[in-house]
């Protein structure tokens, strides 16, 4: 018999309770996740995941995010480091502030918010420009998460300065296709990175796309870790966009305007 998918709500890490000790900070009680976070799991040398395994993890994340989107929740920090694996290898979408301590090098300050640490290389173009987040910016981050999966946890955009990310994306540049990534799946990733948010798929649409990709895969293709991903100088998949005009300094009218 065909195995039924888990209920979407079960693919989001649940809160069991809160402990309020007499002294010290409150403690959050969460289910035990035997295999830890998804990024550490796929990067482990002793593991031999297949392409099907990795896409299957992505499908579970998409189902969890579909549930959150239906509940009108915006995640804002979707990445492999923020997904957890239980003893049955079921992926749970989570969001831990602790990830900012464990993966500190993946969070950067931006000029407009120097005191805030943001996951710049997972953020949508419009979020980099305005610091606003929507379900469609979560879709962009999901595309980066799928790239993480198919590269077994490689860091996105190596060599690109975090301060240059918006300009890099405005030039139409995106992450390269991973070695073992089917063309159809890379097309799904590119759709997630469409410049206009309304042109990106919904999580419901992504669930269907990933199910179709999985249905077409044949054989067991294993993904090794001995691959280095670089930003190749090839034609960008999207046409360049004009950079937004800089805002005039406060207290001064735009040039040519009336005083």
What does this 3D model show about the protein?
Residues 1-214 form the Protein kinase domain. Residues 249-259 have a biased composition (Basic residues). InterPro entries: Kinase-like_dom_sf, Prot_kinase_dom, RTK, Ser-Thr/Tyr_kinase_cat_dom, Tyr_kinase_AS, Tyr_kinase_cat_dom. This is Protein kinase domain-containing protein. One of its GO terms (cellular component) is plasma membrane. The structure is a single chain. The protein has 259 residues and is an alpha+beta fold. It has a single domain (32-216), classed as Orthogonal Bundle (Transferase(Phosphotransferase), domain 1), CATH 1.10.510. 32% of the residues lie in helices and 8% in strands. The protein has eight helices and six strands, in the order ββααββαββααααα. The chain has a two-stranded antiparallel sheet with strand order 1-2. β1 and β2 form a beta hairpin. α2 packs antiparallel against α5 (135-150) and α5 runs antiparallel to α7.
Keywords:
two-stranded antiparallel sheet, Transferase(Phosphotransferase), domain 1, 8 helices, 259 residues, globular, single chain
């Amino acid at each position: 018999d065909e195995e039924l998918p888990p209920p979407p709500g079960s693919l989001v890490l649940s809160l069991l309770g809160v402990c309020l000790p007499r002294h010290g900070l409150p403690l959050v009680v969460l289910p035990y996740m035997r295999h830890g976070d998804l990024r550490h799991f796929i990067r482990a040398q002793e593991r031999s995941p297949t392409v099907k395994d990795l896409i299957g993890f992505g499908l579970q994340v998409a189902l969890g995010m579909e549930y959150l989107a239906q509940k009108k929740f915006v995640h804002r920090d979707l990445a492999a480091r923020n997904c957890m694996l239980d003893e049955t290898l079921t992926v749970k979408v989570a969001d831990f502030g602790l990830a900012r301590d464990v993966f500190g090098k993946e969070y950067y300050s931006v000029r407009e918010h120097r005191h805030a640490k943001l996951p710049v290389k997972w953020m949508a173009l419009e979020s980099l420009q305005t610091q606003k987040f929507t379900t469609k910016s979560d879709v962009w981050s999901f595309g980066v998460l799928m790239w993480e999966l198919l590269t077994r946890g490689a860091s996105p955009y190596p060599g690109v300065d975090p301060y240059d990310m918006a300009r890099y994306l405005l030039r139409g540049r995106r992450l390269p296709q991973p070695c073992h990534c089917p063309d159809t799946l890379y097309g799904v990733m590119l759709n997630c990175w469409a410049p206009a948010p309304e042109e990106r798929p919904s999580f419901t649409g992504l669930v269907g796309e990933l199910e179709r990709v999985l249905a077409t895969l044949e054989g067991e293709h294993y993904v090794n870790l001995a691959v280095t991903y670089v930003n190749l100088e090839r034609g960008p998949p999207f046409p360049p966009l004009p950079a937004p005009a800089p805002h005039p300094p406060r207290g001064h009218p735009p040039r040519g305007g009336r005083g």
